Amino acid sequence: MHLKRWLFLVHRWLGVVACAFFAMWFVSGVVMMYVGYPKLTEAERLRHLPPLGASQQLLGPAQALEAAGIAGPLQSLRLAAASGGQAVYLAVPVREAAIGGRKPPPGSGTIVVDARTGGVLREVDRQRVLASARAYAGAGVAVDYRGAIDEDAFTHSRGLDAHRPLHVVELADAQATRLYVSGRTGEVVRDAPRAERLWNYAGAWIHWLYPLRGGALDAYWADIVNWLSIICIAVALTGTVVGLMRWRFRRVYRSGSHSPYQGFAMRWHHISGLLFALVTLTWIFSGLMSMNPWRVFDGKAAALRVDAMNGGALTIGAQDASPVVLLASTGGGVRELSWARRAGQTLVLASTASGRPIVRDALTAQPYALDPEALKGAVARLLPDAVARIDVLRTYDVHYYAREAHTMTGGTDKPLPVWRVVFTDAPASWVHVDPLTGTVLGRIDSHRRASRWLFAMLHSWDWLPLLERRPLWDVVLVALSLGGAMLSLTGVVIGWRRLGRKLRLPKPQDPAPARSEAPSRRPA
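The structure assignment produced for this chain is given below.
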């Protein structure tokens, strides 16, 4: 069969299904510009935690850990009124921090300790769940317990795996918020207002084909999305080639048009296909890249040696300052105290409902500022390779920038100024470090930088000159999305009509009248 014929057939019949997905992706993508998949950001979590009071009778961290029988170094330690509406220590021992050489999900191995008695809180029952929900909602808001689930339409995130089963609580607030409470720690780990849930059915939930998650096809979800994207790329490519072949650039058809098609759907499918072919291709391709198909963006870079940078794992001493002393030194409004080992020094980070954390020396509770030279020496131990340079970023750039909390890449802390530590290793690693707290904020190597361009730039148009000039960003993306939707919907109409003609049964033919023979007349 001639190659041209194959192009027409591939585009025609694969496009019957693909255009329906194109239309869904364009429309749901516009929704996702303004309503993201439910998440509980760090800022939201802190804002809804009850403040810790200096007058509360709380055990010191060493006393509480000893009473709970927790010995040895820790990966992390936090104090907050985060479980059951009461102050608890949330400790992650180092032995739980790495299982089989892999970093476990956040929250895995967390031990919850009553900060008043030192008792380990193991059971997350209904009463504790409701107390956590009431503390989150505030006074005067009724709560309704709806039972425990493993997973639903709004909890597909793998970051919640360490907290399953999840307890569901409905709040009688103005937003009709649904809370998901960890079945392991009793913390609120996700909130989903009703409007966000409803918009998600037309947004992220359908955009990422989440109807396939949580059921019999869950194990195949990633492969289905990957191969469907590849098929759609083939449809868009063949459609572009066919569209160019059928368009007469220098002369016209008998109708006087450069397009041979006269029907509304066919004509505008042809025209919009030529106008929006490139953006359609880039959005489908970048959507495929967002899946990290077959782990193409996973490099073979050595793991960061965070313990070596910090001078060992976190240990809590009997002489460390008590919560009462620490809270008194911060001036109030603290939602959470977090103990951390940074560049050989044990610090306490006091987080309020807004703003940057307050840094205190864990032993004296006095304000503490990390020595820049000491921190430079510490970050050099993150990898065996040498540090090429350390850049101090005081403004965002193309690789370190903040997005709105509801977006896929938004909701994480992106403080300024920040250090970019550039290493000489083969994957060309960049490590971002907060000079205020000494926290490693993230690492990107050449593979992840490629992902940034092939996914974030092409899919979300994360380009600072455009992001900083809203609503220009909104106008450009909505206009292109509407053009892509027109291309897709006209394709759906064409495919539906053609499929209907092919499937329509032929009308039964009327039987031909029987041929009558004239009687023979013989001469007498």
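Interim note for the steering committee: The radius of gyration is 31 Å. Residues 97-102, 514-524 have pLDDT under 50 and may be disordered.
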